[in-house]
Structure formats: structure tokens, C-alpha cells
């Protein structure tokens, strides 16, 4: 059985991930809307960074889940789409990681940022590795995606909890 024939077997998994990510993204929007003052308060700039990172994690999971749900999407198109998400995401996460390490963005939340950006980098690299595995018809790619989504969701949920613990809702 080819990889193209295997992907439909995973549609319930990807549909569940897309639904969960969309729901959590909506809840993040509500939490941030109830705390609109952090957007303008300079003392809370680090919280806005954390909120953007959290939103990004949920959106990456949502977008990549949706890619796997497109009916009869050719593997080269799926590979290209995953690379278009994975490569820039990895570069951005690496940039944020380096900035935190240099201390530019460090506040009392630097450990959380380092952990989150580390998981972001691994998740982005994982998306790229999955794309390459798909290109070579590797069925293992579908199982690797579980690890990638686990890393990205762990980072997103961790930062969401961290953020909400600091907000006054």
C-alpha cells in the first residue's frame, strides 16, 4: 500500500487535531481580548510575545492538519506545503531561541521561552523531516507526524497555561 493510500486512514486523527487547535486558538483569542491592556502596556511586552508564540504553535498544528485532510492532494504538493511551513517556522524559532539566549528578550520568563522555542525548533525540523520522508514514500512519515504534533502542542499548551496563569481574567 502506498503512502497516498495510507493518508485517508489518518483523517480522523488530523480532523481531531485541527478541531482541537482551532478551539484552543479561539480560547486564546478570548483570553487575550479580555486582557486587551497587555497589548499597550510596555511592562507586558513579554506576555504578548508568549501569546504570539502560542498562537503560532496552534496555527502550525491547524494548518498542517488541514493539509493532510485535503482529498487526493498529490504527495509533491503536500511535501511543498509542509516545507513552506516547517522551514520558516524552524528559522523563526531559532531566531527567537538565539534572542532569548542573548538575553534581549529575557525577563523572569526566559526559561519558559527557551523551553518553548526549543520545542518549536524540534517541531519545525520534524515537519521538514516528515516532508522528506513523504517524498520517498516513507510510511514512517505518518507516525513521525504524531511526534511533531506532540512537540508543537506541548509547547502551545505549556505557553498557554503559562500565559493564562499571569493574566488577570
What features would you describe in this structure?
There is one protein chain. The protein has 169 residues and is an all-alpha fold. It has one domain (3-166). Helix content is 82%, strand content 0%. The protein contains seven helices and no strands. The chain has helices spanning 3-6, 11-34, 37-40, 45-69, 75-102, 110-135, 140-166. Helix 2 runs parallel beside helix 7, helix 4 (45-69) packs antiparallel against helix 5 (75-102) and helix 6 runs antiparallel to helix 7. It is elongated, with a radius of gyration of 17 Å.
Helices and strands in order:
Blueprint: H1 3-6, H2 11-34, H3 37-40, H4 45-69, H5 75-102, H6 110-135, H7 140-166
What keywords describe this structure?
mainly alpha, single chain, 169 residues
Low-confidence stretches: none
Distance between the termini: 51 Å
Give the helices and strands as they follow along the chain.
HHHHHHH
Q: Average pLDDT, to the nearest integer?
A: 85
The total count of helices amounts to 7
Proportion in helices: over 70%
- Kindly give the count of domains: 1
Give the class from helix and strand content and strand pairing: mainly alpha
Radius of gyration: 17 Å
Amino acid at each position: 500500500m502506498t503512502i497516498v493510500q495510507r493518508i485517508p486512514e489518518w483523517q480522523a486523527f488530523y480532523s481531531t487535531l485541527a478541531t482541537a487547535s482551532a478551539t484552543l486558538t479561539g480560547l486564546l483569542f478570548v483570553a487575550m481580548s479580555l486582557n486587551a491592556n497587555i497589548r499597550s502596556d510596555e511592562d507586558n511586552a513579554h506576555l504578548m510575545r508568549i501569546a504570539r508564540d502560542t498562537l503560532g504553535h496552534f496555527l502550525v498544528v491547524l494548518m498542517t492538519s488541514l493539509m493532510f485532510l485535503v482529498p487526493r492532494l498529490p504527495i509533491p504538493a503536500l511535501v511543498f506545503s509542509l516545507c513552506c511551513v516547517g522551514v520558516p517556522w524552524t528559522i523563526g524559532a531559532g531566531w527567537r531561541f538565539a534572542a532569548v539566549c542573548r538575553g534581549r528578550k529575557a525577563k523572569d520568563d526566559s526559561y519558559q521561552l527557551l523551553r518553548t522555542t526549543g520545542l518549536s525548533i524540534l517541531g519545525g525540523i520534524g515537519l521538514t523531516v516528515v516532508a522528506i520522508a513523504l517524498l520517498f514514500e516513507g510510511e514512517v512519515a505518518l507516525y513521525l507526524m504524531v511526534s511533531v504534533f506532540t512537540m508543537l502542542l506541548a509547547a502551545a499548551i505549556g505557553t498557554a497555561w503559562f500565559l493564562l496563569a499571569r493574566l488577570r481574567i
